Amino acid sequence: MFPAIDLERYPLHRPDSPACTALVARCKADLAQDGMFNLEGFMLPDAIAETVAFAAPRLNAEHAFTHARRHNIYFRPVPELPAGHPALAEVETRNFTLCADQCAGTPVDAIYSWRPLADFLARTMDHQALYPMPDPLARFNVMGYPDGWGLNWHFDRSQFTTTLLLQAPLAGGDFVYRSDLRTQDDPNYDGVAALLRGKDEKVRSFKAEAGTLNVFKGRNTAHRVTPVEGEVPRIIAVFTYYDRPGVTFTREERIGFYGRAE
Ligand SMILES: O=C(O)CCC(=O)C(=O)O
Ligand SMILES: [Fe+2]
User: Fold this and answer.
1) Which ligand is nearest to the CA of 141?
2) Closest-CA residue to 239 (of 138, 154, 159, 135)
């Protein structure tokens, strides 16, 4: 048995079983309704403990990249908008980031690279297949958020994002999101501006427990993580898959997110 995932509850290794088929149907229904689904208790406690024991002593300025910057919701300039447009309002993000190459051989590496997980995620989203990134830094990351730190409003590069919470903070660190704020054809800049002004009634939030796998459609769902409160850092693994093989970050993106290109 694969040691890091609760396969009795989530039988991803038996894709054709009635239990797995029912699970896929449940995830699809949640995605259609909320733009996300959660699998609580996905990662087993021993694997969580092993990963936290590895990552916690490294999520600091000495070992990890301190990702601290002001940015707009797009994490990049938008030439078609005039400077000062309210959709470009800047926000501040701060976390410690460990790249995949720094977490090689850990249980999160094993989970990310486990083919049945990518296959399961593909089924939930009606993709023919999903592929782990070959990018040695960006494949997956482990982020740490100490007291007062958070991830601010953004859209993701990838169509959807998969996270695995490793350690919940005492307070704060909530995942806040607004599903379908834009579409591929409509950037909805007015809606983005309203969200950033705090004037969007469709914003929702939730607080996960350690071990929960969360999947959300991050490309068109604006989302953020509120500042953590208290002495226990929020620690989370973020997995990125694409529907075609070979996708990597550009050199500029690697430097922006990780402070190094290789
Ligand atoms: O930490 C989270 O829950 C979300 C992470 C995220 O949005 C990202 O890495 O793009
Ligand atoms: Fe994100």
Assistant:
1) 1
2) 138
Dump the DSSP string for 14-51.
Answer: -TTSHHHHHHHHHHHHHHHHHSEEEETT-B-HHHHHHH
ipTM over 0.95: yes
Q: How far is the CA of 153 from the centre of ligand 2 (A)?
A: 8
The pLDDT tens digits for 208-221 are 999 999 999 999 99
Q: What is the pLDDT of residues 31-73, one digit of tens each?
A: 999 889 999 999 999 999 999 999 999 999 999 999 999 999 9
In this prediction, residue 256 carries a pLDDT of 86
Segment 143-166, tens digit of pLDDT? 999 999 999 999 998 888 999 999
Ligand 1, CB cutoff 6 Å, lining residues: 151, 156, 161, 163, 175, 223, 225, 236, 238
Q: Could you give all domains of the chain from N- to C-terminal order, each with its CATH number?
A: 18-258 (2.60.120.620)
The residue whose two tokens read 């500029």 is 252
Ligand closest to the CA atom of residue 140? 1
Atom 5 (ligand 1) nearest CA: 238
Of 241, 252, 258, which Cα lies nearest the Cα of 97?
258
Specify the amino acid at residue 198: G
Quick one: which atom of ligand 1 is closest to the CA of 145?
Answer: 1
In the reported structure, the alpha carbon of residue 88 is separated from the centroid of ligand 1 by a whole-number distance in angstroms of 20
Q: How far apart are CA 28 and CA 21, in angstroms?
A: 11
Distances (CA, A) of 43 to 112, 147, 165, 222: 12, 25, 9, 26
Which residues fall inside 5 Å of ion ligand 2, going by CB?
A: 156, 218
Give the predicted TM-score (pTM) of the model: 0.95
Q: Find out whether 222 and 183 touch, Cβ atoms under 8 Å.
A: no
